[in-house]
Design goal:
Structural class: alpha/beta
CATH superfamily of the largest domain: Zn peptidases
Strand content: 15-25%
CATH class of the largest domain: Alpha Beta
Radius of gyration: 24 Å
Oligomer: single chain
Helix content: 40-55%
Number of domains: 3
Distance between the termini: 16 Å
Strand order of the largest sheet: 1-2-6-5-4-3-7
Shape: globular
CATH architecture of the largest domain: 3-Layer(aba) Sandwich
Length: about 575
Amino acid sequence: MTAAWDYRDPLEPALSAQISDKTLMEHVRTIGSLERESGSPGEAQAFDYIERVLKSYGVEVERRDIDAYISLPLEGRVHVPDAAAIEGLTHSFSTSVEALEGELVDVGDGRPADFARANAAGKIALINGLPAPGRAWAAQQAGTLGQIFVLMDHLHNMIVTTIWGTPSPDTAWRVPAVPCLSVLGADGQRLRALLARGPLKVRLTTRVRTGWMAIPHLVGELIGRHEDRFVLFSGHVDSWHYGAMDNGTANATMLEVARLLAGRRDALRRGIRFAFWSGHSHGRYAGSAWYADHAWRELHQRCVLHLNVDSTGARGATDYSVLHATEDAQRFAETVVADVTGQRSRGRRFSRAGDQSFWGAGVPSAFMSLSGLPKQDTDLSRAMERLVGSAGFPWWWHTKDDTIDKIDADVLVLDTRVYLASALRWLNAPVLPLDHGRAARGLLAELETLLVTAGARFDLAPAIDAARALVDRLDRVAAALAAVDAAAPAARLDAVNRGLMRLSRALVPLSYTSGDRFTHDLALPLPPLAGLQRVRELTALDPDTDAFKFARAALVRERNRAVHAFDTAASAADDLLHQ
C-alpha cells in the first residue's frame, strides 16, 4: 500500500467532472445578493436558502439559534478643528463615543517603543496599518484614549477584540475599552500635515452596537456507511456587506460538494458534517467556538479532520503555493493541491485565525483560505502575511466592494475540485492520511531551538529525550503503515485509524494550544509549545530574583505537560506497532 496521503479515491474523476459552474454561481448570486451581518434578516435569509438546498439534496439538517456576544460597527469619524470631519470606519468591539477629545500623536507602526517615544498615554494614537486585535490591544495597554489606524487605498472592516468566541469571566476584562477607527491614507497624510504645524486636538465619534444576540447555527450531515467517524467541513455565512467572495463563494463550494457527495452517499466509508457558522466576522468566531464547546466530546472521539473553506473563487486568484494545515495534515494537503491544480504548494503552520476552534479537542485541520492572488507588494498583503500567514488577499476583502463581479467561475470550480477531492480522500481512505512524523519533528526542532536559548538556565533534556523517542517510534509506524493492506479486515483498519487519531489528540493540542484544552486561547499569535516559550525570558532575568525562580517553576510544569504529551503519543505509537 502507498502512503495514506497518496490515496486517490476512485470516485474523484467522475464527481469532479460533475462540478457545475452554473450551480456554483447561482448559489453565489443568491447568497451574495444579501447583506449578512451576524443576526441580521439578510443572514437569516441566506441560512434559509442553504437549509432548503441541503434538504433538496437529501442531507439531514439541524438548525438552531444560539446566544452570542456580537458587535456591529455603525459609524466612525474624526473631527478636526476648523475643517470638515473625516469619515472613517469603526470596528467590531470598538467602544462607542459621542465626542471624545484628545491630543493626537503619531506613533508610526505602533510598536511598544513607538508609544513610549510619543508619550502616547492619555492621547489619541495615529497608527499605520490594519487594526488587528493584537495591535489595538497593545495601543490600549499603552494608555491611549483612542486609536486612528491609517490604511492606504481602502477601508477594511475588522474586529478588534482579542477574545475568541464568547467572553468568559476570565477574559471579559479584555473587551476593548477605547474607541478605534480607520481612515484612508490621504486622510492620514492630512492629519500628519496638521500635526507638523504643532499640537493638534481631535474629536472621535464612534457608534458600535455590542451585546447578546441570537444567531443562526446550521449543521447538515451525511452518515458514513462503515465507520462511526466524520469529517467536519465548515465555513461562515455572515459577512461584511454583500460578501460575495467572503464568504458566499465558500458557501457555494460547500453546497456543491454536498450535492455531489449526497448522490453517492452509499459509497462513503465515513460521514461528513457541513457546518455553516454565524458570528465569524462580528463575534470573533462565536459560532464555531460554540460548537467546539457543545460538541467537544464527539469531536474528540469521532472527528477525523476539520476541513475549513473561506473566500474561494476570487478573480485573479491563481496562486496555490501556500496553504495552511496542522502539521499532521500538511503532507495530505500538499498532495491534494498538487494533484488537482498541478501546482506545488508548501504547508504552513496555522496562524491564530479563521474558524479554527477545534484544536483543544485534538482535531487536525486543513485549509482556511486556499487560492490567492500572486504575490503583491501592498499594505494589505503585508498586513495579511503577518496576521494570517497569507499575502494573496485582494483589495476588496472586507469592503463594500466584495460583490459578484469579483468572482471568477473557473477559479471557483478549481477551488471546489480541491475541496471535493479533499473530502473524498478523508471520507474513504482505508487508513487516515495523517503524517505524525512531520508534526513530531517540528516539535523537536522547536525544542532544540529553545534549548539553545535556555542554555544552562533551564533543563529541557527530559522533553527533548521524549520527543526524540517519539520521532523514532513514528518513523517505524510510518514504515508499518505503508505495509497495511487496504483490503485488511475492517476491525484491523479501525484499530489503526483509532491509533492515528490518538496521536493527533496528543500532538495537536501540544502544538496549537497554551495548555487548557477546554477553553479557547486568545486571537493572538501562538507558537508551538507555547508554555515552554518562557525560557526566552530567562536570559533577561537575574537567577537570584523571585521573577527568575517563579518563571523556572512554571517552566517545570510546562515541561511536564510536554513530556506527558510525548509519552502519550509514544504509547499510541507502540499500540499501532503491535497491531
